[in-house]
Write a structure and sequence with these properties.
alpha/beta; 2 domains; eight-stranded parallel sheet; binds pyridoxal-5'-phosphate; Orn_de-COase; pyridoxal phosphate; ornithine decarboxylase activity
């Protein structure tokens, strides 16, 4: 059902198979070359933008160090991520505290460590920043609607209405902070490029109103993440995103495009990972059942949390895949004792009829939001291990 060639070259596949052969499953194999390639492609597509890697997508030291070598900056969400990134020798002026939900003592901690750029979307949070991170640069996250076309929406919980963003930027100036810019996130795995157009238009309105009415000159737009990885649902190529978004920026800002920040997570690391899994059990629920249940040694609690609501549809391959193999529809499920641990049921994957217990199943494009999202030891299963290929 899945055409492997659309996701990975034969040479890279063979290299992966040789590397992973002896590894115990489940595990993730991350190809650092892919991350490097994706980073360079993103930077070349948006030559004017500063890249802030959203560390939560894959917080492994190997990944952070690679992004550091490539000249990237970092979007950090907690003091623990901060400690990790600083311990790798990254300077605090390349770090943004992008989480709008934070404790006062954590703001103070970031400030003490040298971080001077903070996101916010509320009055209370801004008050804390003014108190515990005086003088810092502030960008305000605005609400954007994105649930219909993003496979993993980030709406509602983050951001505020543009009118409130306006008030917050005035409040930040009045409380001794530096009003710096606007941010938004159009939703992760956003397949509708037009969503950036709406967000940029709202941003332009704020830039103009704040300058005309309050003499506040903002200088930065943080366009968040949302760029795609390669799953089953097709997306435009990154070059399409880049040319369209660049056009939106020039349509609204002319020759005075502000400093642009991008915060890629999924698009940098998603395609780099392959989750290597093994079939634990294959069964039918009655003798004439049309579907096989295929239980893997990975599931919602072992890396595949983004299959909640069957939102992210990973390309799935098996060691029995062959153009001539007969296939049948399956329900894919994980190994734990929670009945929520069904991976795909509504959307029927087709797997070879001769698939057997013990065969390997490969979940492609599993480099983002997997290893760090796996449970610690639900049912005693250990956290998902990651191995890195150069
Ligand atoms: C998670 C997150 C990102 C990364 O989004 P992707 O869609 O994975 O690229 C960027 N910015 C913020 C603030 C985030 O929370």
């Amino acid at each position: 059902m899945i055409k492997k060639d659309e996701y990975i070259s034969e040479a890279e596949w063979q290299r992966f198979l040789a590397f992973s052969q002896e590894l115990e499953t489940p595990c993730i194999v991350v190809n650092l070359r892919t991350i490097k390639k994706n980073y360079i492609k993103l930077q070349n597509s948006f030559p004017f933008a500063a890249i802030y890697y959203a560390v939560k997508a894959n917080p492994a030291n190997e990944v952070i160090s690679l992004v550091n070598q490539l000249g990237g900056n970092f979007d950090i969400a907690s003091r623990y991520e901060l400690d990790q990134v600083l311990a790798l020798g990254i300077s605090p002026d390349r770090i943004s505290y992008g989480n709008t939900i934070k404790k006062a003592k954590d703001i103070a901690y970031f400030y003490e460590k040298g971080v001077r750029m903070f996101a916010t979307d509320s009055k209370e949070d801004l008050k804390n920043i003014a108190k515990y991170a005086p003088g810092s640069r502030i960008y305000v996250r605005i609400l954007v609607e994105n649930s219909a076309t993003a496979d993993w929406p980030l709406s509602r919980k983050f951001g505020c209405h543009p009118d409130m963003a306006y008030d917050l930027l005035v409040q930040s100036r009045d409380s001794g902070l530096t009003p710096y810019g606007i941010s938004f996130h159009v939703g992760s795995q956003q397949r509708d490029i037009g969503q950036w157009n709406d967000a940029i238009a709202k941003t332009k309105y704020l830039f103009t109103a704040l300058e005309e009415e309050e003499n506040i000159r903002l200088s930065m737009i943080n366009m968040g993440g949302g760029f795609p990885a390669s799953y089953v649902q097709p997306t435009n190529d990154l070059s399409e995103y880049a040319s369209e978004i660049t056009r939106y920026l020039h349509d609204d800002f002319g020759d005075n495009v502000p400093q642009i920040i991008l915060e890629p997570g999924r698009s940098l690391v998603g395609d780099s990972g392959i989750l290597v899994s093994e079939v634990v059990l294959i069964s039918r629920k009655n003798n004439t059942a049309l579907y096989r249940w295929v239980y893997l040694d990975t599931g919602k609690f072992n890396g595949l949390i983004e299959t909640l609501g069957e939102s992210i549809k990973y390309p799935v391959l098996t060691e029995k895949d062959d153009p001539s193999a007969k296939e049948g529809e399956v329900i894919l499920a994980g190994p734990t004792c929670d009945s929520m641990d069904i991976i795909y049921e509504d959307f029927k994957y087709k797997l070879p009829l001769d698939l057997k217990i013990g065969d390997r199943v490969y979940v492609l494009s599993a480099g983002a939001y997997t290893a760090s999202y796996a449970s610690v030891c639900f049912n005693g299963f250990p956290p998902l291990k990651t191995y890195f290929m150069d």
